[in-house]
Amino acid sequence: MSAEPDVALAPGNSAGIDLLAGLSIAGLLLPEAVAYSGIAGMPPQAGVIALFAGLVCYGLLGRSRYAIVSATSSSAAVLAAGTLALGGNDQVSRAVLATTLVLLTGGCFLIASAARLGGLSHLIARPVLRGYTFGLACVIALKQLPHLFGVTALHGDFVPALLFDLLRDLGQVQPATLLAGAAALLLLFVSERLRRLPGSLLVIVLGVAASGWLAQHGVALTGDIRMMPTWTWPTWPARDQWLPSVELAAALLLILYAESYGSIRNFALKHGDAVNPNRDLAVLGLANVVSGLLHGMPVGAGYSATSANEAAGARSRLSGLVAALCVLLMVWLLLPWIERIPEPVLAAIVIHAVSKSLRWSVFTPYLRWHRDRLVALAAVLAVLSLGILNGLLVAIAFSLVLLLRQLATARLSVLGQLAGGHDFVDVAQHQGASELPGMLIVRPEEPLFFANAEAVLVQLRHRVLDHRGLKQVILSLEESPDLDGTSLESLADLAAWLDARGIELRVARLKDAARDALLRMALPQLPPQALDYFSVEDAVLAVSPPTP
To answer: What residues contact 90, with CB distance under 8 A and at least 6 apart?
Structure first.
C-alpha cells in the first residue's frame, strides 16, 4: 500500500474514545511487560522501560493507528537464548549483553530504514512464522511451568532437556504456588469469554491482595523494581563476540519486524489505512535505541497487544500515548503493589498470552490447500529440537531451500490448442487440447534463471528430437519477468541448435525487461519481429519469413 500524508493523532471527536482505549489496555500491558522480563531473564523494570519507550516513540512518530509497540514474548525468548549463548549463566554479563543487543537491533532497524528495506519481513514466509510462533509458544509455556509449580527454573530452550528437568522436579511442587497459578490461569481463560472483564488486571489485583498469605506459604513475589533510568554507556562486545552479536541483532530484527509489520499491515488492510514500511523501520529502530540506552528490552508491535487496542475502540495513536501515561502513573503510584505480584500469577499471564498461538487451527489452511505443510511442520520441529534462535534460522533456510528446489526443477509444459479456439493450454492437463502439426509449443512453468535455464532448455531439445517434421518451435516465456545472463546464453545456444536443424524459433508473451535483454543480444535467429508476439496465438498465426 502506498504512503499517504500522516493522519492526525486524534481526528474529530475520537479523543475521548482513544482515552478510554488507552486506559483499558494499560492494565493489560504493564503486567505482561513485567512477565516478559522474566522470559528474557532480565529484571522486571526492563520490560516496563521497554513498554514506555515503545509506546511513546511509536505514538509520536509511527504510522499505524492501532499498533502497540512493547516487549514481545518472541523477542524476549530470543534475547534470553542469545544472552545465554554469549554470557552463560552469569546474570551481570547477560544484562550487559542484553543492552548491547537491543542497541545493535535498533541500529539494524535504522540501517534497514536508510537502505529502504521495507520488504525485509518477506524473507520469513508466513508458514515459517506460523510454525515458529507455535514452537516458540510451546517453549515459553514450558519454561513458565516451574514458576507455576514453585520448582527450580528451567534454563536453555532444548525441549527434550526441559521436559526431563521439569519431570525430575515435579516431586517438589509447592501446593500454594500451584493453587495460585492454576486459579489465575483459570480466571484468565474465563475472562476471555467475557469481553468487558479485564482478566489480567483482575488476577493482578487478586494476587496482590493475597500476596501476604501467599508469601507466608512460600510463594515467590516479583520483588524489587528499580525504575530509575540508567544512562551508562554500553559496553561493546569483545572482538570474538562482535560477529555473533550482530547475527543475534539481525535475528531480532527479522523476528520483530516480521511480527510488527504483520500486525500493522493486517489492521491497515482491515481499515483501509496506508502503510509506510520504511518509516516504521525507522521508528522501531528509534524505540529500540531508546529502550537499549535505558537498559530495556527489544520492542515491536505485537499482534495480541495491537488487536487488544483495536478491540478497545482505538481510533488513533493517541490511545498508545494515553496508555504510556497510565503506565507511568501506575509505576509512580502503585510500584510497591506491583512488586508484590506473585510469580505464579505472572507465569499464568504469560501462558495465557501465548496460548493464542497454541491452536492447531493456524495450520488448517496449509493442510487444506496442500501447500507449505512441510515448511510449517519443519519450523515447529526446528524450534523444539534446535532451540529458539537456531530453529528460526533453520526454518528460514529450509523454506528458501524448498523454494530454490522448486525453481531449479522447473517443469516444461507442451501446449495445444483448446477445441480449435484462441486458448493454448497444457495438453497433459486438458484432454481437449491438441498439438498443431509441424509446430511445438512449450512453456516453462517457473521463471528461467541461472539454476534452471540450462535444464529446462535441455528438456526442450529432447522434445524437439521426439517430434519429427518440426518447422517451428514457440517458446512462451510468460512466467519469466526478466532473464539473467545464464538464461540468455542458454537461449542463444538453443536458437543456434534449432537453426542448424532448419527449425524456426519464436518467443511469445515476453515481458518488457526480457524482450529488451534479447534485443540487446541481437541474435540472428531471433530478429525483433520474432519477439513481438503478445500471445501464443499471434506466434502460431504469424507467417514465416521466406527462406533466403
So the answer is: none
